[in-house]
Amino acid sequence: MDVATRAWLISQLGTSTDPADLDTRYARLGTARAVALEVLRERLAALVHDQPTTINVTGVVALSYTENVRAIERQIAQLENGEPPAPDDPATSTPDGLGVIQLVARPRR
């Protein structure tokens, strides 16, 4: 994994992510996007299954993790749609510049 790919992964997953774990996953999965999706899906599963989404002690404290769940789900959806572009994404085949279209008049009847 090169420096740009590692920096992209850290920007998507946070600085507390273990670089050795990222290297292992990248070697197994082959793309930075797949690594980011796998890590985020694991985090989502841990958040949903390991703890309740809301805790409420009447008159004392109320905690809700539902926005955290939604934020991770939004980030997963964005990555699945190709945003933001990863350094190792394949090049797109659509041109980024202007195109030329020639208009031809139809013959009259």
Protein architecture, described:
This protein is mainly α. It has one domain (3-80). It contains four helices and two strands; from the N terminus they run αααββα. The protein has helices at residues 3-13, 19-29, 32-50, 66-80, and strands at 54-57, 61-64. The chain has a two-stranded antiparallel sheet. A hairpin with a 3-residue loop joins strand 1 (54-57) and strand 2 (61-64). The chain is flat and about 85 Å long. The termini are far apart.
Quote the average pLDDT.
86
Strand order of the largest sheet: 1-2
What's the story with the biggest beta sheet? 2 strands, antiparallel
Into which percent range does the helicity of residues fall? 40-55%
Q: Give the structural class.
A: mainly alpha
Rg calculated over all Cα atoms = 22 Å
Q: How many domains in all? A: 1
Task: Flag low-confidence runs.
Answer: none
Q: How many helices?
A: 4
Order of helices and strands: HHHEEH
Shape: flat
CA(first)-CA(last) distance: 64 Å
> Approximately what portion of the residues adopt beta-strand conformation?
5-15%
